[in-house]
Design brief:
This protein is of the alpha/beta class. It has helices at residues 43-54, 74-83, 95-111, 128-146, 162-170, 189-193, 218-232, 249-252, 320-357, 384-392; strands at 3-6, 17-20, 121-125, 153-157, 174-178, 200-206, 237-241, 265-271, 283-287, 299-301, 308-310, 361-363, 374-376. It has three domains: 3-57, MYOD Basic-Helix-Loop-Helix Domain, subunit B (Irregular); 76-328, Type I PLP-dependent aspartate aminotransferase-like (Major domain) (Aspartate Aminotransferase, domain 2, 3-Layer(aba) Sandwich); 334-401, no CATH class.
Length: 409
């Protein structure tokens, strides 16, 4: 119980009295919902009111569909709190924060097999959505710098995150979306070949798709582009959306080639707040070569004490999550991340096996990542939405959704 020392009611004489939080008038009188209250209230009462309201939310630890981190060690949480007030963009006032940010970029480059540590570049973002928007914007500007006429287009699968569609609409690029088919859940080289032309700014390849968690065949798409670019004189590259896979595959399957080892993969995004094990929101965007980020997209500002480059869609935000990422990289190391991701995969595969053994479900996941997507067999006798509602009665949150119309069965 939170208690607060407050002034006693009028007529009770001078001095202070001790009143339990739930006995205060703020818990017996209405508090405005959509207006700033005329008077304030004790800190404990405000905290308890907000806390009680949030009890209506689900428990994040029981969310079976979340991709974001729901727990961090107390030491990491202390670092987050200590750095919430540091404006990440203010590099002049917080030079060591800038140094740590650059250290993380230098760690992630080799993780994705960047060819030259001195030449690749990258930046932290609020999440993978911002990273994708910025990465694709760089591809569009690079295309525009070579093509003064024509209308740009971009090729990606219907399995991509909604931020890919947002990019196309916000930045006026024609989306050429590869639909799902009954025998194909994601994009492939043959579908890409049908949609690219000289005005394609890049091809999107998803490692850990939104609908099923599958990984697209980046190596096959790269081979396709290598041949077409050489034959036709085009320069179509690949942006890999590794929001989910970027902190998994380098540790669990380092032999799988999907990253900067491929000649046409020019940019990669990854979510620190997914399997990077950091609270929301944190993403990372890396370019294979510094030249893959057109210089005319970088802004140089000097009103915070010194001239500094910036390539972001937003400006001010706290530095806490960047420090949390650095903490994890130091705390866990390669061996720690490998152990956690292998354990996650083992749990996912065990769960998938139990679903299949029940005879009620078909597992759609390829199990390259610790993501389990399943559908009901005809004899189940109930729908995914009914199961989701039933689990919610016990506090568990299970996402139920339809695949795009071309793939519903």
């Amino acid at each position: 119980m939170i208690s607060n020392k407050v002034e006693p009611p009028a007529g009770n004489g001078p001095g202070t009295g001790l009143s339990a939080t739930y006995a205060l008038r703020y818990f017996t009188e209405s508090v405005p919902r959509y207006e700033i209250p005329a008077d304030g209230m004790p800190a404990g009462a405000a905290c308890q009111l907000v806390h009680d309201e949030l009890n209506l939310d689900g428990n994040a630890a029981f969310d079976l569909g979340t991709f974001t981190t729901t727990w961090m060690e107390p030491e990491a949480e202390r670092l987050i709190v200590q750095n919430l007030g540091k404006n990440f963009v203010d590099r002049f006032e917080y030079p060591q924060t800038t140094e740590i940010h650059q250290r993380i970029v230098n760690m992630l480059g080799p993780l994705f097999n960047a060819p030259d540590q001195a030449n690749f570049c990258g930046t932290a973002t609020v999440g993978s959505s911002e990273a994708i928007l910025l990465g694709l914007l760089a591809h569009k500007r690079a295309w525009r710098n070579k093509h003064r006429t024509g209308h740009p287009n971009i090729v990606f699968g219907a399995d991509a995150h909604i931020c890919w569609d947002k990019f196309a609409r916000y930045f006026e690029v024609e989306p050429r979306v590869v639909p799902m088919a009954k025998d194909r859940f994601c994009s492939d080289a043959a579908a890409v070949r049908e949609r690219i032309d000289e005005n394609t700014i890049c091809v999107g390849a998803i490692m850990g798709t939104t609908f099923t968690g599958a990984c697209e065949p980046v190596r096959e798409i790269d081979a396709l582009l290598a041949g077409i670019n050489q034959d036709r004189g085009w320069d179509i590259s690949i942006h890999v959306d590794a929001a989910s896979a970027g902190f998994v595959l380098p540790f669990t399957n380092p032999e799988l080639v999907w990253d900067f080892r491929l000649s046409h993969v020019r940019s990669i995004n990854v979510s620190g707040h997914k399997f990077g094990l950091v609270y929301p929101g944190l993403g990372w965007l890396l370019f294979k070569h510094a030249g893959d980020l057109p210089e005319d997209l970088v802004f140089y500002v000097n009103y915070l004490g010194d001239t500094m480059p910036t390539y972001t869609l937003n400006f001010s935000r706290g530095s806490g999550m960047v420090m949390a990422q650095y903490y994890n990289l130091l705390r866990l190391g390669y061996a720690g991340y490998k152990s956690i991701m292998e354990n996650c995969l083992a749990n996912a595969r065990y769960f998938a096996g139990r679903l299949v053994a029940s005879g009620l479900f078909d597992v759609l996941s390829t199990m390259e990542l610790p993501i389990v997507t399943f559908r009901f067999r005809q004899k189940a006798g109930f729908t995914p939405f009914q199961l989701s509602r039933k689990l919610r009665e016990r506090g568990w949150m299970l996402p139920a959704y339809n695949l795009p119309p071309t793939r519903r069965t």
